[in-house]
Design brief:
single chain, alpha/beta, Rossmann fold, 5-stranded parallel beta sheet, 5 strands, globular
Length: about 160
């Protein structure tokens, strides 16, 4: 379902984006279902600018064999980066969110990385989907716009 002004914005973190392409990611089925909705024009994916660095860090860990699961060839990592680029993610600078990020980190005792996604979702009045079960367990009840990837089918977007 698209919104009155087109596709529904959905803030997603690196765990969701990587679940689209990494073979051994948990909740891959849920991620692929979300990706199908993106391809159908129902949803547009939104990220803070730091998402690029998180993705690069995760891919570099996969290439070096430091992440659980099979080691990833550099060529495969580059193909994942190209696939992500083809998604045309709507990227927002964190510069305008800095004050709110600091406030969220203090209020919810979370990292600035997580707070950036939360602040962006708040600013856009959008849902934030993550594959981080620990974050959802800690903040899910306090922040109704936070959705765990594994529960995405139950969430109203």
């Amino acid at each position: 379902m698209t919104g009155a002004k087109g596709p529904v914005p959905l803030v997603v973190d690196a765990s969701v984006l990587l679940a689209f392409y990494l073979p051994a990611e948990p909740y891959k089925t849920h991620a692929l279902s979300l990706l199908a909705r993106v391809a159908a024009g129902e949803i547009r994916l939104v990220v803070p600018s730091l998402a690029r660095y998180e993705i690069l860090n995760a891919l570099s860990r996969c290439v070096r064999g430091l992440k659980p699961g099979p080691k990833l060839a550099r060529e495969d990592a580059e193909e994942i980066l190209a696939a992500l680029a083809s998604l045309h993610l709507e990227e927002h600078s964190v510069q305008s969110l800095e004050g709110r990020i600091l406030e969220i980190t203090k209020q919810h005792s979370c990292s600035a990385y997580d707070a950036a996604y939360l602040a962006l979702a708040e600013r856009l009045k959008a849902r934030f989907v993550t594959g981080d079960a620990k974050l959802c367990a800690t903040l899910g009840r306090k922040l109704p716009h936070l959705v765990f990837l594994g529960n995405l089918a139950d969430a109203r977007l």
